[in-house]
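The material for today's practical consists of a large collection of protein records. Getting from the letters to the tokens is the skill we practise here. To make this concrete, we reproduce a full record directly below:
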Amino acid sequence: MKFVIQRVLNASVSIIETSDDNKTSERISGFIGKGFLVLCGITKEDTFEIADKMIKKLLGLRIFEDENGKTNLDLKTVGGELLIVSQFTLCADCSHGNRPAFINAARPEQAIPIYEYIVEECRKAGFMTETGEFGADMRVDLTNDGPFTIVLDSDDLKTNSVDSGSKILDNLSKETAADVLKTCFKLRGAEDFGEAINEVIIDIRRICEAKHVCLLLVDKANRKCSMLAHSHSDDTNEEWIDWCDDEQFRLVETWTNIVPDDSSLIIKDVADLQKINLKNPAWYKSLTKAHVYNIVLCPLSFEGELIGYIWASNFETSKTERIKETLELTTFFLSSEISRFRLLNRLHMLSTVDLLTGVFNRNAMNDRVDSLAKDKSNHPLGVIFADLNGLKRVNDTKGHEAGDILLKNAALILQGVFIGYEIFRAGGDEFFVLLKGVTKEEVLNKESELREAISSNDSVSFAIGHSYVESANEVLRAFHEADESMYADKRKFYMEHKELDQRRG
């Protein structure tokens, strides 16, 4: 992945469009003031983890001048904005001949989700982020401040994890190394990742001969922790800590100031605990309250990004060094497997979830309808269509940001009414709900609940249609009948509200 980052006073991107009569027009897609113009090139080798690392580096760049004229300030400090433009030509191979080859560039089905993820993560981080349009004919205008231009290449950010893993293997006894390798290989090709990772942690506790071993994941973007797996002996007296609590995340954040990068923290005795008390009293209090007397804690990183921690606690101190080496080798294997697991989950989410509203998207709906059409179980099926009234009018009069808020609120109402049922965003303003294994009366009751929910809402209004079939494989008929019922309701709505009838908005 490559970013060409230009420090700008202002920048804009316009989309060039050609009409059927070959006339060209230009419309501005994004405009920013002071900030970064980022040209983004995505290759076939790129992943969401690489994107995370590039985003972190981009947002942390200190290339704005302070009061002394030194380039010492980052984008957030100066209140800067971002304009991110897709640019596959950055992946050009010019090593042979005079015509660049673009074989290294990712295809759209891979590049678009990663590009959209980069944009969304920058917005989540609190930055006003404008874009072009992927694959469009674009024109970029800018006023480069300086000029100041940086090329950021993900290849320059990779860590040499293979070498570090080899060094750990050299230091471990052959027996211990073989045990670690054997247990970590359980993750390869495991059908149930959660079950496999639990087995691995049980084995690691046995190898370490510790009372307790924990594997904690850290999600810095969403500021939360989650216990992926842990194993404790029957005779342990350690108290359980709820690592999902917000207070615990704030505590885990402080570990980065104590735990060396790509190394382990060892607390063997009371003297070491007192050192922790001086540096981090809150953690010392947590350790003593949980009856932890000694601990070896290792960070898990993948391509330079912290993804979690693994630790062993309350063990024979004579075995501290072997435990340290065991955990370090374990992190070497676990980091890549956990990142791969996270990537698969994220890809699945991006392919099935509508990122704006959080409900299933049209692709997921099509797959679900196809599977139901082949269902021979004869389960009854209810279908409800809910078409959001007035979206076009809101987009035209108040802007697309207001339209997005309206869509989010509409989805929240549907999620509140149809708890436990599948909700899909079928199109721009159309939602589709599947109610499997219900009676016709239950479908009608749910429709009534939805109508009651929107009657007390000043901004959200749906045209609603429903259908019921005795067998799920009749889903296409139910789909068609619910669609017709919904449009009848929409016609009724606009007959009653003629002032809102703007292209059936």
